[in-house]
Amino acid sequence: MSITATELKNNLGKYLLLAATEDIFVTRNGKVVAKLSNPYQDRVNIAKSLFGILRSDMTLEEAQEERLNRI
User: 26 to each of 8, 13, 37, 62, 71, how far by Cα in Å?
Assistant: First the structure.
């Protein structure tokens, strides 16, 4: 998403909430001058990519043991 610096200034709270889920590019005079983003987005994407890989009834200890046994 791309917004102007004025729009950001007038609606900062709204864009801080949106930055948790998507990058927001701030422009001034038509040029990008800043980017708002979630610093943990890489972790969120990795966690989402793992969803459904483990059995639903598997405990954390079983998952760790299985991981160690694969090495």
Answer: 7, 14, 11, 46, 45
Residue range 10-21, pLDDT digits in tens:
999 999 999 988
Q: Give residue 25's Cα distance to chain centre.
A: 15
Match 């160690």 to its residue by tokens. 68
Summarised one tens digit per residue, pLDDT across range 33-58 is 999 988 877 766 666 666 766 677 77
DSSP three-state, residue 6:
helix
CA distance 3 to 47: 29
